[in-house]
Amino acid sequence: MKFLIIIRNGLIIVGGLYVIIHIFIFVMQQSWFSSFDAEHLIKTYNQEEIEHFSRFAFQNGRLRKWYVDPRIEIVNHSPNWKYKGEVVKDVIFDCIDTLNNLMTEIQIHPTTEEDGNVKLSVKCRIFRTGNSYASAYASLFRLPYPSCNRGVIHIELGDDNNEEIRSTVFHEFSQLLGFDYNLTRDKTAMWIYKSLFNPPTSTFVDSLDRLVEDYQDYTAFDKAAIRIMYDKEVAMDPGLTRQKFDRMIAQAKKVMKQ
User: Fold this and answer.
1) Exposed, middle or buried by CB within 10 Å (0-12, 13-18, 19+), for 168?
2) How would you classify the pairing of strands 118-124 and 109-111?
3) Rounded to an integer, what is the distance from CA 101 to the centroid of its chain?
4) pLDDT tens across 196-210, in order?
5) Are 161 and 144 in contact (CB under 8 A)?
6) How far apart are CA 112 and CA 73, in angstroms?
7) Lowest mean pLDDT among 7-11, 95-99, 185-189
8) What is the rounded CA–CA span in Å between residue 104 and residue 95?
9) Is residue 75 classed as helix, strand or coil in its secondary structure?
């Protein structure tokens, strides 16, 4: 009898959790408790800028963004750091300045202390032996959705020219902030390829007799996307889905026409 009671109570708890989870999912799909101001987005940014943002910000299904300021700590200097170290640091600081001028919700801070929430490692080697990447991690218990509060950037450099260093650094910082690759071809909108959010590409220039990076800085659309993501007036929620994003914009347009 006791065993049956335990099973019954267990089923009740599981059923209750199931209902709570589905209620939570339903509420998060609505706009009732969202800080996202779709009207401000529409009034401030044009359609192409919004579409460019959407193509790169929702690649993982939900919006991944920071609510705390990233504090960048440079760690793990390689033996050949002196070879390109000062150049790399100058590019990193320039990238941070560029981003801070675009964002109003957060600011990025370089730090020499061991309290950084983003570890940035740079390997300078004569021959490139690894891949560059950036990752951001979120608190698992922050509601309604977890926002990023720590991360890692790893940059692997070989015998790179300064343009390639710049292109790589700027690209990895965009990944840290929540913009992921969009490699889908769209012949009717070729401007989507003019983005440093995608893996850096290069073109051979005959006059220089070498490959030159196509983009050494964020494009105008990239900068608009960064502003949108971290515009405190737009105030998009971490975890926002593309479906909810589109629905709230459609609702805002109806209201604005009234």
Assistant:
1) buried
2) unpaired
3) 16
4) 998 877 777 777 677
5) no
6) 6
7) 185-189
8) 16
9) strand
Q: Which two tokens stand for residue 155?
A: 């940059």
pTM: 0.81
**Tokens standing for residue 246:** 């589109």
Place of tokens 């300064």: 162
Angle, to 10 degrees, between the axis of helix 47-57 and the axis of helix 242-257?
160
Instruction: Return d(Cα 131, Cα 72) in angstroms, integer.
Output: 20
CA–CA dist 34, 74 (Å, integer)? 35
Each residue of 113-150: pLDDT tens digit? 778 999 998 887 665 555 777 788 776 555 556 789 99
> CA of 29: how far to CAs of 11, 19, 99, 179, 256, in Å?
27, 16, 30, 22, 22
Dist CA 234 CA 248 (whole Å): 12
| Among 31, 65, 232, CA closest to 142 | 65
Type of residue found at 16? G
Strand bridging mode 202-205 / 210-213? antiparallel
What is the rounded average pLDDT of the residues 24-30? 47
pLDDT tens sequence across 31-54: 445 789 999 999 999 999 999 999
